[in-house]
Automatic annotation (TrEMBL):
Cofactors: Mg(2+)
Provenance organism: Bacteroides sedimenti
Membrane-crossing segments per the record: none
Organism phylogeny: Bacteria, Pseudomonadati, Bacteroidota, Bacteroidia, Bacteroidales
InterPro entries (UniProt xref): Isoprenoid_synthase_dom_sf, Polyprenyl_synt, Polyprenyl_synt_CS
Protein name: Octaprenyl-diphosphate synthase
Cross-referenced CDD domains: Trans_IPPS_HT
Amino acid sequence: MDRLSQIKSPINTDLEQFKELFHTSLDNSNPLLKEVLSHIKQRKGKMMRPILVLLIARLLGKVTSSTLHAAVSLELLHTASLVHDDVVDESSERRGQASVNAIYNNKVSILVGDYLLATCLYQAAFSNNNEIIKVVSQLGQDLSEGELLQLSNVSNTEISESVYFDVIRKKTAALFAACTQTAALSADATPEQLEMARLFGEYTGICFQIKDDIFDYFDDREVGKPTGNDMREGKLTLPAIHAINHSDDFSVKEMAVKIKAGTATVEEITGMINYTKKNMGIEYATQVMMDYHSKAISLLADFPDSEIKRSLVDYLDYVVDRKK
């Protein structure tokens, strides 16, 4: 049994219910919409976020109808954000599959993304929990704000670690935190448990994003994405930020400004990748990631040993150990 299958084993029945509800939520009779939604259904994701929702709900109580609708709502919001992101980033591929905008066009992509957002709120309403609806709605705001913060940061010549964390908290960490918050709410958790769940999700999301950023410094055949892709988009992530801010070489900072401005050549981007690797950028980012991993693990300390708790620990380990 592979690691992910082992993590999912205590919630396999719950996951099947989630999948059925998710696919049903994407049923539509409009010919074009049905075709696009069918394309989206074919994506083979790892279901990292629904797994987290179900595990936290089981840890704090049980999986209910409210839990399942919350998980579907968040997965729809996540999917909508990816469809919109592909338009913004002019991406032609998503998880090895042609993006919606590549097959159809930007107009169709935006409208389908809007439909997914509306369906997300519709599913949240079925949770019959106003607090869950608030968390989902707040997440929609956070994701948009995070994207805008990232865009505005591209034109900022300051190379800031704090801004980097502001961005990933609004984007990736907010999504994981919403998963754990809604799970706790669906399980009628205490205020203390709710805060524990929120922090667990936030720390997990930060680990997840730092790991993704580390992937960008290695060959695409190993990790499934183009090396230096972030830099080509004008993004400097934690490994490079650390290496640049600990350099006395003016030419390095000059190159960083060019990358953010989108004027760097392929050779300059390759040079920055190599500089980051040689100057402990990867090691630093890995250490920060493992610090957040430890903080997340510590939040589970007061829970008795159980299959669910072991799956959550394995889930965290998987996030930091994964190869793509």
